[in-house]
Amino acid sequence: MKEMEYDVVVVGGGPAGSVSARYAAEKGARVLMIEKRQEIGSPVRCGEGIAKRWLDEIELKPSRDWISHEVDGARIISPDGSYVEVDESKAGDESGYVINRDTFDKILAMKAAKAGAEVMVKSYATALLKEEGEIAGIRMRHMGEDFRVKAKVVIGADGYESQVGRWAGINTALNPKDIDSCFQYTLEGIEGDSRFNDFYLGSMAPGGYIWVFWKGNGIANVGIGVQMSKIDRPAAAKWYLDRFIESHPELAKGKPIREVAGAVSISAPLDRTVTDGVMLVGDAARMIDPVSGGGVYNAAIAGKYAGMVAAEAVEAGDATEDFLKKYEKLWRKRMEEHLYRNWMVKEKMATLNDDIFNRVIRILADVGMDELNVQNILKAISEKDPELIKEFEDFL
Length: 396
Fold this sequence. Notes:
Layout: E1 2-5, E2 8-11, H1 15-26, E3 31-34, E4 49-50, E5 67-70, E6 73-77, E7 83-87, E8 97-99, H2 101-114, E9 118-120, E10 123-131, E11 134-142, E12 145-150, E13 153-156, H3 163-167, E14 179-188, E15 196-200, E16 209-216, E17 219-227, H4 236-246, H5 249-252, E18 255-265, E19 274-275, E20 278-280, H6 296-316, H7 321-349, H8 354-367, H9 374-384
Parallel strand pairs: 1-12, 2-3, 2-13, 3-9, 6-15, 13-20
Antiparallel strand pairs: 4-8, 5-8, 6-7, 10-11, 11-12, 14-17, 14-18, 15-16, 16-17, 19-20
Helix pairs in contact: 1-2, 1-6, 6-7, 8-9
């Protein structure tokens, strides 16, 4: 078996992995990033909507190389067609740019490579490498050959199905109510207002929502996420989405030029994301927003923290769990409260019927607010519909 040696090995070449690899390399670590697919970023499994506000934190300038379309904000639409408009600053992590995710991921990987990280595709981890009972890297398979890759730190950026976490003894189990089954078409030749990304709520998408993310005039990603615990038929996500599209003539006239299927975690964040020699980041650490299902923003920011701390651990000669907890403290301070709050919101939304969604959206459209958050929403409901506020006593 061939052997290689690095300071840091990153498993997974998505945004979390590439940003981790880049910042570890920039701080002087010898880094290897592996990706199981033959091409980074492809096939695309993403709605491709992101916010703008965080890009400067990872020193990524907006570019038409990877931006397909820019929107003014979002519309949140209830079952009866009522809607509230929110601009990009209030619309969460899924509104601002609609991107070409395959190109976006490649650019992040190129930045990692430019910083000095080695990148290997068609390479997948088969186990954690252990020496004298301690994690000392990974075993991997590349182009039919097996390798021992020694490393002081392993960063698991291998998605919501993460094996690195399980191998390291970190509990990454998911309840069916914390998984969304997703399906998406890219439709060409449709009509609609491309200034806004649209989010449709209600029984049309049990436990989730339907989205229309515009990639330009006449073309959009039209997709759905439905909670696994609420479906009882094969290919349920596609079935619900097809019904929705058929009932909207402006979409039904479109022609599909791409289809994407997959799943996404919508859970609370993990209780633990580090152990001796290992850090989990992005989807592997359950950093996806439980309401929106968006994970690129959180993955990239946490990846920056993971890469920096990994390099510091190498320099200090200390990759123990106690040292790596510095990473955990950084990401939890930045996003844990938001993730937990939105997990609670997701849990509540899954219990609401169409009538309640209609009433809430009409109130928000009528009141208007400077900032769309749970506190302001509850205040508006309390003032406009005191009977309805009883539905949300848990949040009060």
